[in-house]
Amino acid sequence: MDVVSDAIAAVRIGQPSSNRVRVSGSWCTRLAGYDGAGFHVVLKGTCWLLPEGGPPVSLRAGDAVLLPHGTGHVLADSPADAAAVRHAVPFERWSEESRPPQAAGGEAELLCGKYRLDRSRAHPLMSELPEVVLLENRVGSHPELRSAIDLLGRELEARQPGSCIAVPSLLDLLLVYMIRSWMAEAATGAWPAVLSDTVTTAALRALHSDPAAPWTNDRLAAEAGVSRPTLARRFTGLVGRPPMAYLTWWRLTLAATLLRETADPLAAIAQRVGYGTPYALSHAFKRQFDTTPGRYRAQAGEQSVG
Questions:
Q1: How far is it, in rounded angstroms, from Cα 47 to Cα 67?
Q2: Separation CA 69–CA 67 (nearest Å)
Q3: Average pLDDT over residues 233-239
Q4: Range among 50-64, 72-86, 104-118 with highest mean pLDDT value
Q5: Beta-strand pair 46-51/57-60
Q6: What does the mean pLDDT of the chain come to?
Q7: Residues 6+ apart with CB under 8 A from 58
Q8: Which one is predicted more confidently, 259 or 85?
Q9: Residue 72, pLDDT above cutoff 90
Q10: In the β-sheet with 89-90, what is the strand arrangement from edge to edge?
Q11: What element of type H or E holds 287?
Q12: How many whole angstroms separate alpha carbon 152 and alpha carbon 116?
């Protein structure tokens, strides 16, 4: 897998959810902070997003906004005052009741959704995303994102046979395209710079493609086509940790994903992530996650049932 795919897969748990809502007149709804990521796409009309602790954001038809850290926020037909925000209707009730009422004001149509994420395993690429990622609808911008929005909107408008598979798949695709679009537009941030550097990208691709391989700095430098000092300087300067330290971190993060998502024995997981014995993996895992692999798997099972 590539780095962006792995960064998303490492934290994503469960199935995403979404609602298509229509409303008109004066309205205001609150979405509480969430242990995951939220998104909104304006399909028709305009509205305002008021994130906790941040400035209001004006949204118009075609705009998409990602809240990658689950920041609590308010959606409203206008930049609501403090009193209106305090009395905002909880989103769960608002989305069930929302219909175009016979009231003054333009109608708005929104696509709203959430992704469940496990932040204990967050890749630094995901961690450095800003609290609010606004992707404005501009002519010629982000054609893949626009196509995914159109497809998802149509699936939610009229559920067709197979939609139970199509909708979650399109939601996953939407998340990928929103992160790609942010990286293409980002003026700051380490990871857009990391993935535009050919040497560092080649090294990361090698590590992610085969994390269990017996990597050394010399072997990785040869894979990237540069000297060992050049690789160390460029990789550490951009990623923030040396190549072998990143590899250790990624192997353990991948082990956590396998513990959560599979029933594979610890010995098989150790082999897949490059540890010679289950004991070696367990010792390293406890250092990073402050718990044993067995307890981590049990807790992950309890959370999925809950």
A1: 16
A2: 6
A3: 95
A4: 50-64
A5: antiparallel
A6: 88
A7: 46, 48, 79
A8: 259
A9: yes
A10: 57-60, 46-51, 73-76, 28-31, 89-90
A11: helix 278-289
A12: 18
The SS3 assignment for 272 reads helix
Nearest 5°: phi and psi at 200?
-65, -40
- pLDDT surpassing 50 at residue 144: yes
Cβ burial, residue 64 (10 Å; 0-12/13-18/19+): buried
DSSP SS3 for 90: strand
Residues 6 or more apart in contact with residue 289 via CB below 8 angstroms: 120, 252, 256, 296
Inter-CA distances, 79 with 43, 49, 64, 74, 168, Å: 19, 8, 18, 10, 32
Q: Tell me: the pLDDT tens digits for 186-219?
A: 877 789 889 899 999 999 999 999 999 999 999 9
Beta bridge partners of 60: 46
For residues 10 and 123, give the distance between their C-alpha atoms in angstroms, rounded to a whole number. Answer: 7
Degrees to nearest 5, angle at CA 197 with 255 and 142: 85
Q: What is the pTM of this model?
A: 0.84
| Reported confidence tier of residue 101, pLDDT bands at 50, 70, 90 | very low
What's the burial of 134, exposed, middle or buried (CB within 10 Å: 0-12/13-18/19+)?
middle
Nearest to 4 by CA among 128, 125, 117, 130: 125
What is the mean pLDDT of the segment spanning 228-247?
A: 96
Residue closest to 113 by CA, chosen among 74, 55, 163, 171: 171
